[in-house]
Amino acid sequence: MKSKQRTAKKEPFFLGLDSSTQSLKATLLDGSLNILQKLTVNFDTDLPGFKTQGGVHRGADGLTVTAPTLMWCAALDLLLEKARKADWPLGEVVAISGSGQQHGSVWFARGGERLLRKLDPRQSLERHMAHAFSFADSPIWMDSSTTAQCRALEKALGGPQAVAALTGSRAYERFTGNQIAKRFQQDPKRYRATEHISLVSSFVASLLMGDYAPIDAADGAGMNLMNIRSRKWAGSALKATAPGLAGKLGSIVPSHAAVGRIHQWFVRRYGFNKACAVIAFSGDNPNSLAGLRLQKAGDVAISLGTSDTVFGSLAQPRPSAEEGHIFANPVEPRGYMALICYKNGSLTRDHVRDAVAGGSWSRFAELVEKAPVGNNGCIGFFIREPEITPPILRTGISRFDGEGRPLDRFRPEVEARAVLESQFLSMRLHGGNVGIHPVSILATGGASVDASVVRVMCDVLGVPVYTGDQADSASLGAAYRALHGWHCLKRKKFVPFAEVMAGAPAFHKAAEPDKAAHAVYTGILKQFAALEKRVIEGK
Ligand code: 5FX
User: Fold this and answer.
1) Whether the CB of 282 sits within 6 Å of ligand 1
2) Distances in Å between the alpha carbon of 367 and those of 6, 249, 376, 420, 517?
3) So what's the pLDDT on residue 1?
4) Is residue 309's pLDDT more than 80?
């Protein structure tokens, strides 16, 4: 730290934590939105005693995936120890917020709250919390062992679309409610002996404030238990999940809410100021939305990675049983965010590039240029991995000519253009179906540096595309939210997120849409949807 500069400026500091699958990270921010420092604890290498691989334990059934809850306690201690050694100004941090991998849950035994309130500065968190949990392992988002519970929830509530309309998503295996139902069914005695169930996000907040922290609405939406519109627990979903659940979950608060002050344990051990506010923690996807400053309805990010993800803010959600998730918006208490995920992302694009351009992106871009916008109506569906948006289990490439007749192959330039057009037409179609109507797009991830990819994205979606990778967006988003929550607390009212983000660095504009090209894609969309239906149905 540049301590001279610090003393001269007398600025407050903000801390963002990110308890993700593989690590616990921290970002230190000043009041002028400068990122000062970052730190990481890697679970596998920094805490080898917990014997995790990639931060998790996998069950013998190949479906169950958990993480040892005490490891997260040890990680918080270690991270703050590293921060102190690195001379972070912990005493001048005025607010902390955080991010947690979504859907994971922490199970407190009876007496858990008492233990939290009496955190003992002479003991490590790991030792103090050693007997705090009714289940030592936390189920996490990679778990897919609850199909039976998902079907039962859908049956109880009137089908997948009814669950989506109520909670924002159809029943998903990793969603917390279905994980809770499984534990209740397998071990009702231990379920009854559970005093409280936290999410990963609210768990870390609970440690910091020494009490059960409420769940925030954005992360609460990833449980299949919350009414997505009222942001209260949905009684029918709770009833269908497990008895006495409302009492174990506590309340739901808006994501900008100050939920408490830091506990004495952190003041005594690490020199925090006792006035430091804890702002509600939230899920990693909502925090990334804040980190990328997708603050207005229509601000959308497209992350092009191993899998592609489209997510953004929206005012009018349309929950769908087939496509993605609707969560509450973490920076706009009346708003929503949507997230859709594609299994066929970079690996599929790379496969086509290798096949038609010998592995060269520049040769691939030349091919894309050679084919006309809209490919004369030729459309392909490139399903290398079973797809989730929309669900297409059968893998393979389906190609159609302008009249909708199946073809065995395309010329190389048609093939190159087809894979990009198909992926972005799908994002336009399915994003639109859940209410994502982009006004601007922030392209992130490896493939966002490729000009042909950005060009097609921009023309298909018809709005300007910005680029600029924001590393550790969840941890940064948590620090931004700490700042935002602190402003709301100080002014005793909700302050628009955009107002406190006004000085943040601008993203780089990479492309403006070509109106004529966009009109061509608008003309194709209906045919694309009809052909996609045929592919789904295997016709
Ligand atoms: C979202 O629904 C997911 O399951 C993942 O993105 C997890 O949040 C990763 F932590």
Assistant:
1) no
2) 53, 55, 15, 12, 17
3) 42
4) yes
pLDDT at 385: 87
Ligand 1 site, residue 255, Cβ cutoff 6 A: no
The reply to whether the predicted model has a pTM over 0.85 is yes
Say if residue 8's pLDDT is above 70.
no
What's the Cα-to-Cα distance from 133 to each of 69, 99, 482, 537, rounded to whole Å?
8, 21, 28, 47
**If you search the block for the tokens 């002479």, which residue do you land on?**
122
Q: In angstroms, what is the span from residue 201 Cα to ligand 1's centroid?
A: 12
Q: Please state, in angstroms and as integers, the Cα–Cα distance from residue 128 to each residue in 80, 120, 203, 262, 268, following that order.
A: 16, 7, 15, 17, 15
- d(CA 282, ligand 1 centre) in Å: 12
Q: Does any ligand 1 atom lie closer than 6 A to the CB of residue 309?
A: no
Q: List the structure tokens of 262.
A: 């830091």
pLDDT confidence band for 201 (50 / 70 / 90): very high
Are 237 and 170 in contact by the 8 Å Cβ rule? The answer is no
Q: Which of 194, 329, 163, 307 is nearest to 256 (CA)?
A: 329
Q: What is the largest CA-CA distance in the chain?
A: 75
